[in-house]
Amino acid sequence: MIIPIINQKGGTGKTTTAINLAKGLSMQKKKVLLLDIDSQGNLTFSLGHKASESITGKVLATRKIEKEDIVVLDKYLHLIPTTTDLVNYEFEFIKQSYPYSLIKDALSTVKEDYDYILIDCPPSGSFLTINALIAGDAVLIPMQMDVLSLQGLEQLLDSVVMVKENYNPELYVLGVLGVMVDGRRQLTNQILERIREEYGLSIFNNFVRNNVRAAEAPSFGKSVIEYAPTSNSAIDYLNVTKEFLAITK
Amino acid sequence: MIIPIINQKGGTGKTTTAINLAKGLSMQKKKVLLLDIDSQGNLTFSLGHKASESITGKVLATRKIEKEDIVVLDKYLHLIPTTTDLVNYEFEFIKQSYPYSLIKDALSTVKEDYDYILIDCPPSGSFLTINALIAGDAVLIPMQMDVLSLQGLEQLLDSVVMVKENYNPELYVLGVLGVMVDGRRQLTNQILERIREEYGLSIFNNFVRNNVRAAEAPSFGKSVIEYAPTSNSAIDYLNVTKEFLAITK
Ligand SMILES: Nc1ncnc2c1ncn2[C@@H]1O[C@H](COP(=O)(O)OP(=O)(O)OP(=O)(O)O)[C@@H](O)[C@H]1O
Ligand SMILES: Nc1ncnc2c1ncn2[C@@H]1O[C@H](COP(=O)(O)OP(=O)(O)OP(=O)(O)O)[C@@H](O)[C@H]1O
Ligand SMILES: [Mg+2]
Ligand SMILES: [Mg+2]
Predict the structure, then answer these.
(1) Which residue has the CA at smallest separation from atom 25 of ligand 2?
(2) Number of the ligand closest to the Cα of B7
(3) Which residue among A130, A143, A156, B29 is least packed, with the fewest CB closer than 10 Å?
(4) pLDDT confidence tier of residue A126, bands split at 50, 70 and 90
């Protein structure tokens, strides 16, 4: 199953969610591929990997993934890494009118080998993001519980509708995942209310609390599940993994 | 003085800083123009303005700003608003190889009318961001105090160097502004340390604390300075304004 982890609003825990959900799933012996399509390469960096070139750019340009393109982090967790060169690849894709099916085509060469392919998306609504929506089966939307995040949700849903109508009718929203949630704020509940009533989207019952360990983990090149296994964020992500498995059975 | 408010890492308080610094400066009777170059239009939305089209896209396509393009919020605070159409404009600019001087050229038609022009940049390193760096006199970098933000700083400084060497030798970094700072975290001090030692950048003495009022303000279409004048974030931004004025005299 191909899952874009998507939100064009910046800093909403997409990368942190991609890493920790992937880690949680791999610990349950699900075969997981992580695809880093953010030219800033936070996912690649946060997993302690330094690529010599943007493998993502290369596999999208050629529309196939070969064995040597895949970084094996462990038996159940694989990665297609990127560097900042991906900016140049995206620039060329746009200039030369490449189709929006690059990610779908590239992933089709390996999708039988994995239970889940998680795509870490950049904070933008542009070319690569649309590509991810076209390739995806169901989108996971990590979101902060504030006003501008709600704005971002609205814009994202417009893109989902556009892709469903024109390219990928089977695409659906798996759910919204609350991240960096401060349960004491009234604003949190107001936003949750609006998501349910105005957009009718599923919201994960589990959410990820604001916890400094999650912010520290990238400097150790590890998921917070590995870096600080008893921390709130690690426990939250394990619970999110359990719920994710239940709703994607 | 043209000030790009820039950080390609997502969710680092760029828009919140653009609004509140602009508001603080206008309260000191400085003439300020805000330019929204983020196709998500958070700045435009957070100021309670709904544009019928992306004025930003239009003025960049024509490379001039006319009187009717400017939204007068009050006597000292003006805005060039955008809508999500800006995505389409940027797409065309790239496809048709427009030059990187669009923002510089457009702003040259009005820069004599303002003390400060603040440019709210999107979380990306792409076409419009490079444009903003080429147009800018000095960049202000709002940053969270965590590991991935440090990664973002490194990439941003590469862009600044590239622009200085090839287009705009006068460009400099005004300073890094800590936002959503949690003073209790050890991580905060570790990051501040790294910024000073590894990059030798100035850091504002004042920083903006994490405060829910700042997250609530956009739904009222106001700066947090107006929405919650006695809140920590309002006071922090007024102090930041005072420091900004001192260093840009
Ligand atoms: N639960 C959490 N508690 C505290 N900090 C967190 C948590 N989750 C993520 N962070 C930190 O917040 C910042 C933003 O998170 P992250 O980079 O995962 O978001 P993103 O949506 O991928 O951002 P971008 O839009 O830039 O790609 C990062 O520095 C990250 O380490
Ligand atoms: N001092 C603060 N305390 C609490 N929340 C804040 C503060 N400053 C900003 N926020 C909230 O954090 C979120 C991110 O801030 P903001 O949108 O200003 O960042 P940005 O860098 O412009 O994001 P993007 O990269 O998406 O453009 C917003 O919902 C905003 O309302
Ligand atoms: Mg990310
Ligand atoms: Mg913004």
Answers:
(1) B10
(2) 2
(3) B29
(4) confident
